[in-house]
Amino acid sequence: MTGKSAPSALTRILGVRQLTYIVIGSVIGSGIFIVPGAVLRQSGGSVGASLLVWLAAGVLSLLGALTYAELGAMHPKAGGLYVYIRDAFGRFPAFLFGWTLFFIIGSGSVATLAVASVSYLGQFVPLGPLASRAAAVGMIAAIAAINVRGTRGSARIQDWTTLFKLVGILVMSGLFLMRGNGLDAAPAGLPPSEASGPALSGLGLAMIATLWAYEGWQYVTYSAGEAKDPQRTFHRGIVAGTVALILIYLLASIAYLAALGPAGVARSDRVAADAATALFGPAAGQLVAVMILVSILSATNAIMLTAPRAFFAMARDGVFFGKLAEIHPRYGTPAFAILACALWSMLLAATGTFEQLLTYVVFIGWIFYALGALSIFSYRIREPAAARPFRVPGYPVTPILFAVAAAAVVVNTIVAQPARAAVGLGVMLLGSPAYLVWRRRGANATRVMVSTRAGEPSA
Q1: What b/e readout covers 314-336, taking b as 16+ CB neighbours within 10 angstroms?
Q2: The pTM is what?
Q3: Is 327:150 a contact under the CB 8 Å cutoff?
Q4: What's the whole-number average pLDDT of the chain?
């Protein structure tokens, strides 16, 4: 590296705008451009029911964001959700969360986004199988390099890419609403005779699909240790970002209906491109592809900007690779944590092994999201006099509702797909022996340090 000594803590440089853009950028990848068709189908073709599902999933996400807002403002530490689970429930469940985040959820998401970006890039530049994988790996490497060189630079890229896709979605939605007339004959809701049984089951599936579409707002908690004046900024950023997501998703969903009508949306698995092509021709569909490509790059950068902070916190606790706890002496970033996440993501992208792993394990995240929300009760009991610049409104109902919703996602997966759930839980529990090894190493290192300080031989 350099002769310069490494700083002991990460620099606080993220303001309200950067935190808000991280929330939005982490969530909006390609989902809102694709998922609305499936949600409408699962809602029985009912416009009112599908929009209600989008709103309900957004409100549930907001309940979680409000809860994490109190935690982040109270304890603005690098690692976020990992730290909350550790403090409330112990190091073992926190480690299992970090283990799953590192090896599958975070890295798998980066690999998924990188491969998806190449598929959209292929609409402009023909790429063979080998070139496609090389391009995906190259994209991850480039984003990792940007993040290693400085949080300020990666946050600036996050600002611009998020702003680009926000403006793009707003302009696209406005044009669809002005030119389309698909809302004229849209049915308002489910017929009374169908508002039970299979229809309600379909609404449950639609709710899960939309919750996946909102997935990612919690990533900003990992960067709480770099929030500037976090007692004032963190809660504003996470709440503003989540509210903005709800409004954006509702607007886009209505705009698609205006462009294609309910039947057209229900038939489409690429609703944004289909709507643009139907109203403005094939060239407009290409512009939508560019917007999706930038959106995916933004989401990838947001994960690389945030998730490695959880691995950094784990390493500092002595339960992960020790090198990941280091801060680069020149750039002031958790460089090794970023590189480790990037290298594993690149391997997954190059081998194509991430798809099944991510499908099996992504629901596991909701177990830990529930634990993160429930940790607020532990903090309130153990630290009643602690400064809380933001208090979650509706306490204790708000965190309980979010935890129940998260548990429902997990239970639904276990009941509906028991084999998939068993594999996911098994992969998570593979971290147990690794935890025991790291904990033993940490205990041995502590004993050596104590004996050395006492003047005893360290061997």
Answers
A1: bbbbbbbeeebbbbbeebbbbbb
A2: 0.89
A3: no
A4: 87
